[in-house]
Amino acid sequence: MTVTTSPDAGTRRSRQRAATSQEIKDVARRLLVEQGTAALSLRAIARKMGVTAPALYRYFDGHEALVAALAADFYNELCDQMEAAEAAVGSEVGSEVPDEQRAEPGTVVAHQLMAATIAFRTWSVTHPAEFSLIFGTPIPGVDLYDETSAACVAGQRFGLVFAALFIQLWAVRPFAVPDLSELDPRLLPQLEEYRERGGVDLPLPVVYVFLSCWARIYGLVTMEVFGHLTFALSDAEPAFMTELFQIGRLLGLADVVAELA
Amino acid sequence: MTVTTSPDAGTRRSRQRAATSQEIKDVARRLLVEQGTAALSLRAIARKMGVTAPALYRYFDGHEALVAALAADFYNELCDQMEAAEAAVGSEVGSEVPDEQRAEPGTVVAHQLMAATIAFRTWSVTHPAEFSLIFGTPIPGVDLYDETSAACVAGQRFGLVFAALFIQLWAVRPFAVPDLSELDPRLLPQLEEYRERGGVDLPLPVVYVFLSCWARIYGLVTMEVFGHLTFALSDAEPAFMTELFQIGRLLGLADVVAELA
DNA sequence: ACACTCTTGTGAACGATGTTTACTTCGTGA
DNA sequence: TCACGAAGTAAACATCGTTCACAAGAGTGT
Fold first, then answer.
1. Which of B69-100 are b and which e, b meaning 16 or more Cβ less than 10 Å from the residue's Cβ?
2. What pLDDT, on a 0 to 100 scale, did the predictor assign at position B142?
3. pTM, rounded to two decimals
């Protein structure tokens, strides 16, 4: 019934079990990618595996549980991609020119933030089905943001990837932010609570700018993936880069933007 | 087979037909709202209407056609709401103070733009199921943005509500926009084509700002409706208003924002 | 008034789906 | 060795969209 999350601990049975569990998710993902959300059916998965549908209930509590597990995996894969892009920039930029010779401090962090954002879009655009599962319309009956859900912690990890870079950037290279008076008074306690609970240790206006930037990126990428931008643009990548650079300028990264453009 | 779009033209049979067609959509919507996307099934609709499922095929080509028709209706309802809000502001503000006495020209248009945007969010938040259908994950098998689809022209109408206000605002009260050099070169021809085909007669940077603003609004509202913002905010309305005002300032409407805040 | 046509609706059926239940088979740990 | 528990199966139930042949009815032309 309950999915044993044991990694590969001993008892060869559990290893077999984990392998089968993984195979189910692999087949499910292949079906999802190749034939769309509608093809993500237990029976189809079972058929592809040469097994009957009820057998899958030994590994997942049902269809929605499997979807939730997939979502968690996708979240983590996306985070991995973003962190990989971040790490790559770190070595590249860092090795080319010693940090002391740079005109501005925090250039590496800025590049990492850009790279992570680009990686977010790249993964999303190249994995539209997976993206839809985690960022699209909530699947009826699947509370992705429920506690006790693996997808929930994965989602929080995702949030922290951006947040950590933002915090670093602010620490090493603060930028202009709106005045507190420009923020809706009712927003402040919410930001305050998020700062504490989410571990985003920043001044409130910076927290707002962070959320605002994330919403801009999310909006643009979501529109692109869902085809809600085709009414205006045939290829959304240039628009994304333009928007990213505009955000960069907003964060006082004009030099980094000029370097990348 | 084909849905007769005749309003209520003569032949009492077609009136009856239109009424039944409307009842189907009404029942479908009630099911959608009360029980979610999954409950939007032909059989459930038929059951509620005291009729068998195949009867519905006399009115709609199938499940996806019904969904597309609903989407078109929702689009139009949303547009109506936005235009109503726009019209209300026009009379209010216009009657209070004669336009010549205002400090800045175009204040009415600015208020209308704000009101329409707020109306967009209000409708979206109070109609999450309907919103999901038109702005969420594309339903597999339903090309909402296919030509020949009623939803397509409704979608274009929606785009024009914002665009028209933007054009008016720019005409009467131009604002600061990014330099052409800040736009990705590959973006320019796309903007140019959209300007012509979409009838958005504006300088290219203004077209970009328009799309950027729309993406920001879309992103924030989508995140709110889909619950992708709950990780940080318990009530997204203050954040929305803050973002809206920030956009207003970006469009040189600091006075209007101050007035509304 | 009659017959004819076209519309509307029905019932049965087909192939899918998720899920539950009882039953079998078989590996593994004591 | 042997019993326990895990893994898998077959059958069944309730759904779903969709198609088909057919019956009843309204509307119409003569």
1. bbbbbbbbebbebbbebbeebeeebeeeeeee
2. 64
3. 0.91
